[in-house]
Amino acid sequence: MSNKSLPPHCAVCPQATLHTLVRKGETEHDEAQHVIALAGNPNTGKSTVFNALTGLKQHTGNWPGKTVGKAEGFFEYEGETYRIVDLPGTYSLSSTSEDEEIARDFILFGQPDVTVMVADATRLERNMNMILQVLLLAIKEVVDGKFVCQPYRNFSLPKDTKEKVARLATAIEAEHPHLNNAEWIAFRLIERDPSVQQQFATPELSALAEEIHLNIGHNFHDQWMEDIYIQAERICSEVVTQPGEGGQLPLDVKLDRILTHRFWGFPIMIALLSGVFWLTIVGANYPSSWLDSLLVGWGHPFLRHLFEMAGSPEWLTGFVVDGVYLSMFSPF
């Protein structure tokens, strides 16, 4: 539908241009002018955006037993065709699982024109971790309709670590001058990522990355992730206002910060596991004993008495009360 066919009162509506959008479903378009990647955490609404633009009813999943993959569709807007790819929801791009690898590889190797991050504004700090990682990969990234550029691409790793990563990134840019995400490639080469090594590594780059890996140590990944979490917390503390009087945080946010705390998280986890073990081995004996006293110690004589009062023959009483009833509840 074009704007010319709209009623007069619709033609002046700011939303009138949306009527030029034509949903193409999954029809193949070899000459799509633009490629859009939809990325984000699970359950943030990526598939809803995808379905609204393409007219499909697709969904991706990353739970056990669900085939992990990316959904693709097409739409046309103002005479141009767009290919949109709904990537699996993931919390990280460290490529430790199949869904993370699919999302990472498409952003890195699929060369989308823009990566759209769909984020949950009510839990922005949790989503910001993924956003900061995508910023290292994507040439163009959009969050809530605005382009995000360089300000948060710089990480505050230890000075000696940053210098080593920068040295490798410079060597990568010299070897692959077309790259816009040499720093992220450097991170992944240092971590010996097989996909990145296959695509970008040369003998010289591999040797340099291995030297840096040995100098930095095996905690490089922890340093990198910890720095991302620190940046995410700092950014959100500057721009997010939590509901509640006197600046009080919601209960679930308070619990989340305590249970996932850097220092208190492990003792709390050990205490909870100890409680579960005690409940399984010792604690469960108490309700089991109570049920045994109720159902066998008191319930069996009472039921037999009722059958005798009703004049039930002995064979029926024995079958129902001493047989069926006791076989059901005697384990207690």
How do you describe this structure in short?
This protein has helices at 8-11, 46-54, 98-109, 124-137, 159-175, 182-190, 194-200, 203-216, 220-239, 251-259, 265-283, 285-309, 314-329, and strands spanning 22-25, 34-39, 71-77, 80-86, 114-117, 141-143, 146-148.
Radius of gyration using CA atoms only: 30 Å
Strand content: 5-15%
Average of pLDDT = 77
Number of strands: 7
Largest sheet: 7 strands, mixed
Task: State the strand order across the main sheet.
Answer: 1-3-4-2-5-6-7
Which structural class should the secondary elements be placed in?
A: alpha/beta
Proportion of residues in helical segments = 40-55%
Gross morphology? elongated
Overview of the molecule:
The chain has 332 residues and is an alpha/beta fold. Helices cover 53% and strands 10% of the residues. It has 13 helices and 7 strands. Helix 4 crosses helix 9 and helix 5 runs antiparallel to helix 8. It is elongated and about 95 Å long. About 3% of the residues have low confidence.
Question: Layout of SSEs?
Answer:
Elements: H1 8-11, E1 22-25, E2 34-39, H2 46-54, E3 71-77, E4 80-86, H3 98-109, E5 114-117, H4 124-137, E6 141-143, E7 146-148, H5 159-175, H6 182-190, H7 194-200, H8 203-216, H9 220-239, H10 251-259, H11 265-283, H12 285-309, H13 314-329
Parallel strand pairs: 2-4, 2-5, 5-6
Antiparallel strand pairs: 1-3, 3-4, 6-7
List keywords for this structure.
332 residues, alpha/beta, 13 helices, elongated
